[in-house]
Structure prediction request, 256 residues.
Amino acid sequence: MSPDWTGQALVIVPTYNEKENLAKLVTRLRALPGDVHVLVVDDNSPDGTGDIADSMAKADPGVHVLHRSGKLGLGTAYKSGFGYGLAQEFHYLCTMDADFSHSPESVLDLLGKAASGYDLVVGSRYVAGGAVMGSTPVRKFVSYGANWLAHIVLGVAVRDCTAGFRCYRRRVLETINLDAIFSSGYSFLIEMAFHCQRAGFRIGEVPITFVNRTEGASKISKNEIYKAFYTLVRLRTQALPWEWAVRKVRRLVAGD
Ligand SMILES: Nc1nc2c(ncn2[C@@H]2O[C@H](COP(=O)(O)OP(=O)(O)O)[C@@H](O)[C@H]2O)c(=O)[nH]1
Ligand SMILES: [Mg+2]
Prediction:
């Protein structure tokens, strides 16, 4: 029997000014097999995205909405979504952008792999079969560079640790102390990948074709790029004393 997630999956979609994309995206997600629910986490988008989400939620109990007071960052939007999804007893909590960079149908690939025994599944541009379409050379360089640095500096094994297209099993989100995650913005993704690996969770990747958005504007700023570098340094320096202590205890136990 193939793994089943029917009625157990929630896709968290953080939104800030996504009025061109949201209704189409939610419709495609709700058309997936297995009654995949959708949670929109909207930060009081000035373009009225929150109202679109509300009217869809009114018409379909499988659509949920969280409204926040203002633009509080991508990382904290994920955290709010996780809190909601855990309280509602979902077992698979996925995250994706609202802008169709992540194909709604590929959610099934994430869920399939998670349900087959993986704790975190990442929709990855940088594994065999993955691709990037329509991105500018600068953006490609930044994304590739951030991933390379996360690998070199932090030892993160996930090939695409800045990807926001993910599926977490609920036990991951119950185990990792989300309140202790420092990053409020895009760096949250690197930080979560790092903590999941350290906690020993089984992490898998499925190839995706990332298509740069054609509607609406990207919200990533230069500031977020600087913060990502700071996150790498911060996590590295925090991790060092801890690793030293583990090595010491291991040596003591081994008696040398
Ligand atoms: N709720 C919320 N959503 C955000 C925020 N910043 C970005 N987003 C959403 O997060 C997703 C990723 O942002 P996006 O602009 O696509 O980033 P990019 O793909 O790196 O260019 C999109 O669905 C955005 O609308 C934020 O501060 N709050
Ligand atoms: Mg995007």
The domain at 9-254 is CATH 3.90.550.10 (Spore Coat Polysaccharide Biosynthesis Protein SpsA; Chain A).
